[in-house]
Amino acid sequence: MSGEQGFMKTEIPAEAERILQMLNERGYEAYIVGGCVRDMILGRQPEDWDITTNALPAQVKSVFRRTVDTGIQHGTVTVMMKGHGYEVTTYRIDGEYSDGRHPDRVAFTPSLAEDLKRRDFTINAMAYNRTTGLVDLFAGREDLKRGIIRCVGNPMERFGEDALRILRAIRFSAQLGFSIEEETGQAIRALAPSLAKVSRERVQAELTKLLLSSSPEKIRLVYDMGAAPYVSQAFCRAGSGECPIPAAIPAKKHLRWAAFLRTAGPETASKVLKDLKMDNDTTNRVRVLTGHLGKAMVPEEARGRQDEEKTALRRLMCEVGGELFDDLLVLKECLAPETENREYLQYLRELAEEIRKAGDCTSLKELAVTGNDVMQAGVAPGRDVGRTLNRLLELVLEDPSRNEKSWLLNHIFDCSSMKKEL
Ligand code: ATP
Ligand code: MG
Predict the structure, then answer these.
(1) Calpha distance 69→58 (Å, rounded)
(2) Mean residue pLDDT across the chain
(3) Please, where are the H alpha helices in 177-305?
(4) Phi and psi torsions of 97, nearest 5°
(5) How many other CB atoms sit within 10 Å of the CB of residue 400?
(6) Residues 158-211: pLDDT tens digits?
(7) Which ligand lies nearest the alpha carbon of 120?
(8) Is the peptide bond between 266 and the residue preceding it cis, with omega within 30 degrees of 0?
(9) Ligand 1, from 41, 93, 119: best to mutate by most atoms within 8 Å of Cβ?
(10) How many other C-beta atoms can be found within 10 angstroms of the C-beta atom of residue 358?
(11) Among the atoms of ligand 1, which is closest to the Cα of residue 209?
(12) Which ligand is nearest to the CA of 89?
């Protein structure tokens, strides 16, 4: 333990400090703990501030005016301070993990040391408050300095208790740019199969954090360390080729996942994400993006002919929608020259801007006629209405000056008669 505070590069928010102080005044021990202590020493901004205390949950609740029972069975009470929630958890020991997934029960303990011992890595097992200073029982600060991910205690036991820690180790190594200590690495390789028992949501959350980190290409470690088959078969197949993921890709989950899965193709990509219980919106976006990342935005034969290039871009905007069109362009720029070189993409970006400035129609919504117009002009209600509108839209995508009600009404007959020939 040490009282010096100069090594803390980030300030504790006043509210968290206040929570520590209020618990203290009631005679309880209280520390900030885990990831936030790690991040403060590194000078990173912690995502959340976790507090650990010897006060029991009911005692914590009696100290504060506004609390929420978020995980009371695990000893966690959320204390609300100025609209922000702080998780306050009673010192605890995790019981047996007979299924390798969840501790069968948690037991409270009066000992901070016991609580720190159950934590995964030395860099995540430090506690701090102003009076005691840093509590670092496993040389976590030294490992932070050396850039090492190391288990607290025996790695075989620790990964055996909770196999998610395998992916957490890899994820932290990507987020922090750290290497995995040798014995910890050996245990990961040996116990990789036990990852199969972990819930797919937890696996997905770790892989997503890894991909959103500043070293997304470190997802290779999941393969190199033998863990990929236990994520899923589709995941294992998807990552078999060389597929760099430039850190310049904006850190949004659909963009990073699409870049990672681009050589797998849209079907495998969406299978990977469905298996991992990814939300439908992200899965759909990744499916669309991976479907287009392998091919050029403008067909070969249209290149160099600006009218046709613009038509191709309008068709693409219409097909994928404006937002995904922008995402696709950004991804392609980051991945250039995989399918187009940078200069050509820059040129396409300018064309896309011209299309938007001109207000060209790129969706049924913007078409100058509606389903009603088409029916009033004599098309029978039913599927023909949609087909006619889509054909009119195709004519407008080719030449946006056609998006006028009178021109379109004059061509309804062409469009519906084309249908009759089919
Ligand atoms: P992040 O920046 O992602 O929030 P974190 O280290 O804060 O990283 P959390 O998942 O928020 O990670 O967990 C908070 C702390 O709880 C960790 O620092 C660690 O001490 C402990 N912890 C979390 N998950 C596990 C686990 N699976 N096994 C052991 N300890 C864990
Ligand atoms: Mg955290």
Answers:
(1) 10
(2) 94
(3) 182-191, 200-211, 220-224, 233-238, 253-261, 266-275, 280-293
(4) -110, 75
(5) 17
(6) 999 999 999 999 999 999 999 999 999 999 999 999 999 999 999 999 999 999
(7) 1
(8) no
(9) 119
(10) 11
(11) 3
(12) 1
